[in-house]
Amino acid sequence: MNKTLDCIEMEIFVAPDGDDGGPGDRAKPFRTLARARDAIRELKRTARLTGAVTVWLRGGRYPLAEPLLFTPEDSAPVTFAAWPGETPVIDGGEPLTGWQATTLNGKDAWVASVTGHFRSLFVNGRRALRPRLPKEGLYWIEDAPGVDPKDTFSKTKIQAFRARAGDFAQWRNLTDVEVVVLHFWIEERFPVADYDEATRLVGVRRRNALAFLDDVGDRFPKYYVENVGEALTEPGEWYLDRPAGLVYYLPLPGEDLAGTTFTVPRLTQLLTLKGDPDKGRHVEFLNFRGLTFAHTDWFQPGQDGDATGSYQAAQHIGGVIEMEGAQHCAFEDCRIAHTGWYAMDVKDGCTSLRIVGNELADLGAGGIKVNGADAHGPLCRRTGGLRITDNHLHDGGQVFHAGVGILTQHSGDNVIAHNHIHDFHYTGISVGWVWGWAENVSKNNRIVKNHIHDIGKGWLNDMGGIYTLGVQPGTIIRGNLIHDIRKCNYGGWAIYNDEGSSYMVVEKNVCYRTSSHAYHQHYGWENIIRNNIFAFCDDGQAGLSRATCCDKLSFTLERNILLSNGQPFFWGGYWGFFHLRNYRSDLNLFWDISGQPFTCREADGKYRTTGTFTLDQWRGFGYDTHSAIADPRCRDPLHNDFTLAPDSPALALGFEPIDLSDVGPRTAEKRDAEPGA
Fold first, then answer.
1. Residue 76 lies in a domain
2. Phi-psi category of 417—alpha, beta or left, where left has phi over 0 and alpha has psi -120 to 50?
3. What span, in angstroms and rounded, lies between the C-alpha atoms of 543 and 527?
4. Which of 383, 490, 511, 598 has its CA 20 to 30 A from that of 226?
């Protein structure tokens, strides 16, 4: 091995034009990361690894034929880092060339010959879309044989549905078409089996996971169809005619054949850290810094006939980077983009990981998915103690719309802080995976100073900017800025303590402009909701449902500012009735900038208003006897500035001003500081 590799401060170099037969030094670098990995294995085997190693990657593209695998034998203080000022790209795709001008569906198009099957195409660094119908909005299913539209909890598994007249056709390559149903809190992808024009019955090759219904209104669900060749009509769309071995693309204005690059993904995963926690063998001390991981495809897990992959939070979808049994490893300042699945999948037996300062963008599912053994599983498979901070996660759920920005299921003692999360179709941050009162390993999580916005977009339901499940003592939700959460039918909340969420502290958050409530509790015990600003939410500023499931106080709401612009302040429904007095509310400040009087509202299980209450009636239930109705004197609340004037009446109630100056990602030199209060 060359002299460089024998030094205490070891360096290995890799470059796209390198040679894996060379020494791997700066003058003659290796060509692949796999060769650098194997060189370090050899150093360990021959007892010549005398210190930390930095593997420098020069800028350029590093194509992979298979995912790069690290096992316990690779454990060593090794950093794979981008050479300063350069961008190395770990690439799961390959360039597609040979395009020619043609016409298709009466449109100017480009065409190229291809082999194999792929579901994604990236053009000039962006995800091109497969043609879909309708071009805007969604279709509604007319009927589904055997399904009662009034049975919200129907377990009937469909094999076909009836389309409305004019919505479906006998398209070519029909079995390559997919029906994407949006209902409840998931999307469901159904490959088409056949279509009967006489009956308008669409046969599908998957079964449904949830009741084949819309979630509100005693009706069948809505859907769109994707990958319809006859619908290739809009610039920027593409279509793979698989039987013919041809791919078509409609160019955007300004694009030309000579200057346009096409990338076809060939892999679904790029990097795996694979330990064996059952045997106490872990992958340790590996660090990845400044690298870009890009261009992966997708498929839906499972086989025809099942519903795998159609679950809450797209939890069965894997990750482009996958870890199991990894400890003391880090991903910092990396970029993961143009994926078909989750960007990262942290699985059983992972502890003490740093996922810090990364950008995760254009994601087929969500950003970071974390899971481990539950309370009944083996201790060696518990996952926790992760630091997930200062990341920018955006434009997710491109394929699996239920993907979450950061999803931690059975995992505790994590710090999830200073992240910027936006433009997902479901939840921003989801913590916990136990419904109700069962023992839960998801506890002592700190969710602090995250900026979360533009979530939901009106596609799905029952979501939150921050969403929790189960009994979680020690979990703190503090100092987050959450806004613009949009539901489809119901449940677009900023902070959503869902079933069984208990013993949490929710404080110093600013939440505004949601289509449901700023804060919502769906039965739980003894949560503390204090010193928050909740403002301008369509269905009300705070709400409680299914309070009858609780035999303890659901939450205490105190020293908060609740602002309205003609909306109610409190909402109770789905057995969350005010007269039950399942929560305590006092020392709050209320103000309706529209001049409307204080109101609270109750609703039924379909979210239809059943009663409206005045301030006197509200206080008659025993709520807010020491609260104030007064202008909090925010600087410019309608333009999102909730800074309080020095003489704000909220201060007399004990409200502490909220500092949002450091919300979201911090500069590199501040990332190791404890998240701000």
1. yes
2. beta
3. 13
4. 490
Residue bearing tokens 């769109």: 224
The first and second tokens of residue 656, run together, are 């502490």
Counting the structural domains of the chain, the total is 1
> Is there a contact between 599 and 567 (Cβ–Cβ < 8 Å)?
no
Mean pLDDT by 10 residues, the chain (677 residues): 52 98 97 98 94 97 98 98 98 98 95 96 97 97 94 90 97 97 96 97 95 90 98 97 97 95 98 98 98 97 77 95 98 98 98 98 98 98 98 98 98 98 98 96 98 98 97 98 97 97 98 97 95 97 83 92 97 80 94 96 80 94 96 97 98 97 96 83
Q: State whether the Cα torsion 469-473-474-476 is positive or negative.
A: positive
The predicted model scores a pTM of 0.96
- Identify which of 436, 439, 491, 486 has the alpha carbon closest to the alpha carbon of residue 467: 491
Task: Please answer whether residues 121 and 263 qualify as being in contact, where contact means their C-beta atoms are separated by less than 8 angstroms.
Answer: yes
Beta-carbon count within 10 A of 197 CB: 9
DSSP 395: S
C-alpha to C-alpha distance for 282 and 326, rounded to whole angstroms = 5
The one-character DSSP state at 670 is G
What 3-state DSSP class applies to 632? Answer: coil
**Quick check: 545 and 518 in contact, CB under 8 A?**
no
Backbone angles phi, psi at 7, to 5 degrees: -75, 160
Nearest to 369 by CA among 399, 345, 391, 396: 345
- The whole domain housing 24 covers 3-92
Which residue type, as a one-letter code, is found at position 505?
Answer: V
Would residue 85 count as lying in a domain? yes
Two tokens at 512? Answer: 């505004």
- What tokens appear for 50 in the block? 């005398």
The owner of tokens 């007249």 is 165
Tell the burial category of 165 from Cβ atoms under 10 Å away from its Cβ (0-12, 13-18, 19+). exposed
Handedness of CA 43, 44, 46, 51 (dihedral sign): positive
| Torsion sign, CA atoms 578, 580, 584, 587 | positive
Q: Give the separation between CA 141 and CA 212, rounded to whole angstroms.
A: 10
Q: Rounded to whole angstroms, how far apart are CA atoms 362 and 480?
A: 24
User: 3-state SS of 118-182?
Assistant: CCCCEECCEECECCEECCCCCEEEEECCCCCCCCCCCCCCCCEEEECCCCCCCCCCHHHCEEEEE
Give yes or no for a contact between 289 and 334, defined as CB atoms under 8 angstroms apart.
Answer: yes
Query: Which residues in 379-419 belong to E strands, given as ranges?
Result: 387-389, 392-394, 406-408, 415-417
Per DSSP (E only), the strands in 439-526 are 446-448, 451-455, 463-468, 476-478, 481-485, 492-497, 505-507, 510-514, 519-522
In a domain, 69, yes or no: yes
First to last CA, the chain: 51
Q: Which residues of 47-79 are buried (b: 16+ CB within 10 A; e: fewer)?
A: eebeeebbbbbbeebbbbeebbebbbebbbebb
pLDDT tens digits, residue range 467-521? 999 999 999 999 999 999 999 999 999 999 999 999 999 999 999 999 999 999 9
